[in-house]
Design brief:
Radius of gyration: 21 Å
Shape: elongated
Structural class: alpha+beta
Domain Helix-turn-helix: 37-84
Oligomer: single chain
Largest sheet: 3 strands, antiparallel
Number of strands: 3
Protein name: Helix-turn-helix domain-containing protein
Helix content: 40-55%
InterPro entries: HTH_17
Strand order of the largest sheet: 1-3-2
Number of helices: 4
Pfam families: HTH_17
Length: 89
Amino acid sequence: MQVVCLQEEAFYALFEKVIEHVEAKRRDKPDKWIDGEEAMHILRIKSTTTLQKLRDEGKIRYTQPQKKIILYDRDSLNDYLERHAHETF
């Protein structure tokens, strides 16, 4: 086993680089669960009533961790769009 010695400044600089790298990777991956505003943006709808209708009819997945918080599954929204896509001629 090798032991590597670093000066304190070099250690903290390396540590900061590692944190930046991890945070950049985390930002690149979109969240699985998104709020209604982002869901409406993905579906290109403007009405919360339409979003609720899709939810009530079971066409998109959602979770409700608290009474006033409803989150939507990003993959479910993309699947919904794919199911309704029409092939070109």
